[in-house]
Amino acid sequence: MASSxxxxxxxxxxxxxxxxxxxxxxxxxxxxxxxxxxxxxRRFYGCPNYAxxxxxxxxxxxxxxLPNQYYxxxxxxxxxxxxxxxxxNQLKHDEDTESKQNQLKKIMEDLKVTKSKMKLYDRLFxxxxxxxxxxxxxxxxx
Length: 142
Hints:
Distance between the termini: 121 Å
Radius of gyration: 37 Å
Largest sheet: 3 strands, antiparallel
Strand order of the largest sheet: 1-2-3
Structural class: mainly alpha
């Protein structure tokens, strides 16, 4: 039974009775989504090792094909618009982030300048206070 089930598994992509589908490599198939113009948003089972170079070429659609070219083009164009919108938003987000980082750097630099000015004003105040105390002492000395 094991040999017939494995030959079925490899030739049809069917499972081992555990509810999973397996490829010619013997690995569990992954469900992927096609975004080609011919099969937009059509899910399929594909070999998980496809990108690694094994390329056992196990492939089986999960979804039925769309009924006509109009629907295929409509879904493909909608996906393209959403992808473009997402990229534009990411670009805007990146620009906003860079702008905010630049603003934060400017604020930090201004804060350093303000702190150094405050230290100077503190020293100046202490000096003025000492001069005033000395003046009062000299002016009211017996």
